[in-house]
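Subject: for your reference before the review

Hello V.,

The reviewers asked for a structural picture of the protein, and I figured it would be easier to keep everything in one thread rather than splitting it across files. Below is the amino acid sequence we used in the manuscript, unchanged from the supplementary table.
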Amino acid sequence: MVTDQLSATFAALADPTRRAILARLTRGEATVKELSAPFAMSGPAISKHLRVLEQAGLISRGREAQWRPCRLEAAPMREVTEFAEEYRRFWDESYARLDDYLKTLQTKKDGTDDHDE
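And here is what came back from the structure prediction:
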């Protein structure tokens, strides 16, 4: 069983069906039937995906008359963003160093070409 929020969020996001469900919920709440429409899978299979998303805190289900709309709960994604931000900084710095190195090589090449003429 997943014990920390970040692990639960990543585990839920690991499946493309669950990511597609979350993408649909960014447009507003939807019923289970509406969420299952684009998928060629059984109702119980969709319910299992929704249960994983709900346990990870990524969706909530309300009660309105006879239907239970699902809605996106994006707060757990904040921790994912913070986690990924560290890696973005690493890559930005790596690309900046690579850019500096390539400029140095180009300058040396341009300087060499000038002396060869």
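For the response letter, the relevant points are probably these. The two ends are 70 Å apart (CA to CA). Strands lie at 59-61, 70-72.

Happy to draft the paragraph if you're swamped.

O.
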